[in-house]
Amino acid sequence: MLISSASPQELVDWFHTRQEPLTQQPLLCVLLAPRNADQKKLTKLIADLDDVDRAMGSKVGFILLDPKATTTLAIDRSGGEVAAFPGQVLSSAQHPGDDIRALRDEQAFQDLGQNWEKVQQRIARDTSKATARFVPEFLELFEISPEDQPCLCVLVKGLDESVVLPLGRDWSAEQLISLLEKLRVIANQLPDFHSAFQSVKTAGPEHLLPALKKATKEIDEHILTLESVLEKIHSRYAGTADDHTTLATFHADRYPGTAQLQRVFSQLSYSSVAAFQDDLQVKRAGKLMSQIGEIRNKIHRNDQQCRQVALSIADKAQLIVESRTQMLDALSRLQAGASRVVSTSTLNRQALGNLKSGLEWIDLGGNAQEKLTRAVGWCVKLIETY
Questions:
Q1: Which of 55, 209, 241, 343 has the most neighbouring CB atoms within 10 Å?
Q2: Measuring CA to CA, which residue among 138, 143, 159, 139 is closest to residue 347?
Q3: Residue 99 pLDDT > 50, yes or no?
């Protein structure tokens, strides 16, 4: 169990980003049950530490909150008290010198001396009451109405979504322990969503885009210059309406290449004029067209790399989308009732938004259009879920 005075959102962000690698837990449970009867059940749950420990194993966490941090579990730091159960000793990110200790390792839960049961019961009772005080903040974070209580909210490390499982007003500590055992089974089979998302983000085409954007800008600048040169040539030799149409068609085709430019020049009414053959502006136009062709070749090679990146991202995105759907479905089926999936974090949104922007630069034309469209579709589905 985690005991903390942090705000719900801070707690969610800690769970996703600041757990120690050797002791991190992929699932974290938050019980929202503030009634007096519910607090008594939670007190029993805390006191039955060994039973809960066995039920959750090492991959499921359970959060308790205490704004006072005055019990024997307190760690003297500005953020309040933080203890972890089950699991090993963790290190505080804000204060590396402080340990975040397992509740079952605290002396009050090990000392079998006089009145040890009363001490444990007092800690369990006080913690249960303190946790109830945080329920209103969690209701807003998890988008829960009062009639949805009591419920168990389950966060999944690496995902911005969480699952809200209804418990029913007649829930018992034994039933909750049984539910935690089922969560342990799911946790043991979970893929590493955090690493999977990092893999997708780092595989993005962002490292290719600067060169691609620069090349596109250079082409636009060269084309503007070429347009100006061709207008000067047309004006200098008093081109006819047919000459104008020939040049306009070449422009509409986005200046397809040097060979096509030479073909256009040969079709102009003044192509046989001696001065035209030696005109420096004509030679300049040919040079500009050649430079545009070289840049386009670079873009083509860059775009081929982007296509390969898109296919790689698609494979990873498809795996995440399918695994996430299966996992969320498995969590939703644990309890009878209207379980819901809610967004509790925005950790992945910005990075995925940048990835989507990068994918939009990839050329989906040509023979690979259908395959690439399907590939990018998986990526967009991954992104737009958030």
A1: 55
A2: 159
A3: no
Q: Residue 154 pairs with which residues in a beta bridge?
A: 29, 163
Span of 13-22, 73-82, 202-211 with lowest mean pLDDT: 73-82
What the block records as the tokens of 295 is 């840049």
Distance CA 183, CA 186 (A): 5
Residue appearing with tokens 């955090």 = 194
One-letter amino acid for residue 7 of the chain: S
Neighbours of 373 (CB within 10 A): 11
Q: How far apart are CA 40 and CA 36, in angstroms?
A: 6
**% helix / strand / coil in the chain, to the nearest 5?**
60, 10, 30
Helix (H/G/I), strand (E/B), else coil: 264: helix
Distance CA 203, CA 315 (A): 11
Query: What span, in angstroms and rounded, lies between the C-alpha atoms of 163 and 14?
Result: 18
**Contact partners, residue 299, CB within 8 Å, separation at least 6:** 212, 215, 216, 219
Q: What is the pLDDT of residue 84?
A: 36
H/E stretch holding 163 reads strand 161-166
